[in-house]
C-alpha cells in the first residue's frame, strides 16, 4: 500500500500548473491525501480513470482550507471532522477506512504569526489525538498531512532564529510530541534518524526553496502496530506545484524483516 500526502495550496491552481497528474503517473499511489484544496467539489473535475474514489471535505468559506482523499479502492467507510463543534466546519479532516487500516488526511490549524490561535491549536492537537486513538481501537491508523509544526531543531533550517515563532513554539512542539508519546510513529524520522536538510515547506520569498531553507511540517504518522509493515518513508522535493512538497510511505501487506526497515539517510 503506497500512500502520498500533499498540501497543494489550491487544487485549481495545481491543475492549471499540471502538477497533479505527473505525480500520479510517476509514483502510482494507492491513496492520495490532499490538504488545503481551497475549492468545492463542483469546481473541480479530475481525469483519473484509475482512481474512481474521490472524497472531499470542503468548507463554506471560499478559497480556504479543505481536505480531499483519492483512492484506487473504495473505502469501507468515510468520516469527516473530529466530532468537536468548535473545531469542525473547516474541512480539516477525512478518515477513510480500508481493510487493514484507517487512512486520515488532516490539515492542522496554523497558530498564526501573532500566536492568536495558539490556544485553539493546542486544543485541536488534544482533540485530534483523542480522535485518532478512538479510531485505533478499531484498527491501525495512518495519519497524513500538514501538522504546521517543526518537531525538532533538525526539522527546520534556522531553529535558533525561529524559536518561539509560530510553527516552532514549545507548545506546538509539545503537542506533536504527545502523538509520539501515545505510540504513533513519525515514519520519516524513524527511518532517517538524525538526517538533516530534509524539508517539506519553503517560504515563497528569498529563493528559499532553491537554497533549501525550509521546514519539515508535513508528516505521515502510523500506529506502532504498523511498524513491522513499514517499507519506505520519503520526501519528494523534486515535485513542484505548491509551496509544500509531497511525502510518501509504502506499507507491505505482510511485516518486513528488520534488515529492510532502515533506509540510508
Structure description:
The protein is an alpha+beta fold and 265 residues long. It has one domain (2-261): Deoxyribonuclease I, Chain A (4-Layer Sandwich), CATH 3.60.10.10. Helix content is 22%, strand content 24%. It has helices spanning 11-16, 20-27, 118-136, 159-162, 170-181, 187-191, 258-261, and strands at 2-7, 31-35, 53-57, 67-71, 77-80, 93-97, 102-107, 141-146, 185-186, 201-202, 214-215, 218-222, 230-235, 247-251. The strands form three sheets. It has a six-stranded mixed β-sheet with strand order 3-4-2-1-14-13. Strand 7, helix 3 and strand 8 (141-146) form a beta-alpha-beta unit. The mean pLDDT is 93.
The 3D shape can be described as globular
Number of individual domains: 1
- CATH homologous superfamily annotation: Endonuclease/exonuclease/phosphatase
Largest sheet: 6 strands, mixed
Q: What order do the SSEs take from the amino end to the carboxyl end, as H and E?
A: EHHEEEEEEHEHHEHEEEEEH
How much helicity do the residues have? 10-25%
Strand tally is 14
Low-confidence stretches: none
Cα-to-Cα separation, first versus last residue: 22 Å
CATH architecture: 4-Layer Sandwich
Could you report the average pLDDT, rounded to the nearest whole number? 93
Give the neighbour order of strands across the main sheet.
3-4-2-1-14-13
Structural class comes to alpha+beta
Topology-level CATH name: Deoxyribonuclease I, Chain A
Q: What is the helix tally?
A: 7
Using only C-alpha atoms, the radius of gyration works out to 17 Å
Bin the strand percentage.
Answer: 15-25%
Oligomer: single chain
The top level CATH class name: Alpha Beta
Amino acid at each position: 500500500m503506497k500512500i502520498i500526502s500533499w498540501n497543494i495550496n489550491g487544487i485549481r491552481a495545481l491543475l492549471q500548473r499540471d502538477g497533479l497528474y505527473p505525480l500520479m503517473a510517476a509514483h502510482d499511489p494507492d491513496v492520495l491525501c490532499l490538504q488545503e484544496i481551497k475549492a468545492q467539489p463542483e469546481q473541480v473535475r479530475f481525469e483519473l480513470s484509475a482512481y474512481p474514489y474521490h472524497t472531499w471535505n470542503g468548507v463554506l468559506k471560499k478559497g480556504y482550507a479543505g481536505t480531499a482523499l483519492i483512492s484506487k479502492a473504495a473505502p469501507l467507510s468515510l468520516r469527516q471532522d473530529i466530532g468537536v463543534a468548535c473545531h469542525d466546519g473547516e474541512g480539516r479532516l477525512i478518515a477513510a477506512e480500508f481493510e487493514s487500516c484507517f487512512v486520515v488526511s488532516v490539515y492542522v490549524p496554523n497558530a498564526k504569526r501573532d500566536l492568536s490561535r495558539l490556544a485553539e491549536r493546542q486544543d485541536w492537537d488534544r482533540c485530534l489525538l483523542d480522535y485518532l486513538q478512538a479510531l485505533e481501537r478499531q484498527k491501525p491508523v495512518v495519519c497524513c498531512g500538514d501538522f504546521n509544526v517543526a518537531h525538532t531543531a533538525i526539522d527546520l533550517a534556522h531553529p535558533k532564529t525561529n524559536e518561539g515563532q509560530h510553527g516552532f513554539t514549545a507548545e506546538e512542539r509539545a503537542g506533536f510530541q504527545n502523538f509520539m508519546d501515545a505510540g504513533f510513529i513519525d515514519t520519516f524520522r524513524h527511518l532517517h534518524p538524525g538526517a538533516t536538510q530534509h524539508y517539506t515547506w519553503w517560504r515563497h520569498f528569498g529563493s528559499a526553496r532553491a537554497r533549501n531553507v525550509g521546514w519539515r511540517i508535513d508528516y505521515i504518522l502510523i500506529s506502532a502496530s504498523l511498524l513491522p509493515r513499514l517499507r519506505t518513508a520519503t520526501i519528494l522535493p523534486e515535485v513542484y506545484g505548491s509551496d509544500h512538497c509531497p511525502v510518501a510511505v509504502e506499507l507491505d501487506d505482510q511485516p518486513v524483516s528488520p534488515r529492510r526497515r532502515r533506509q540510508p539517510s
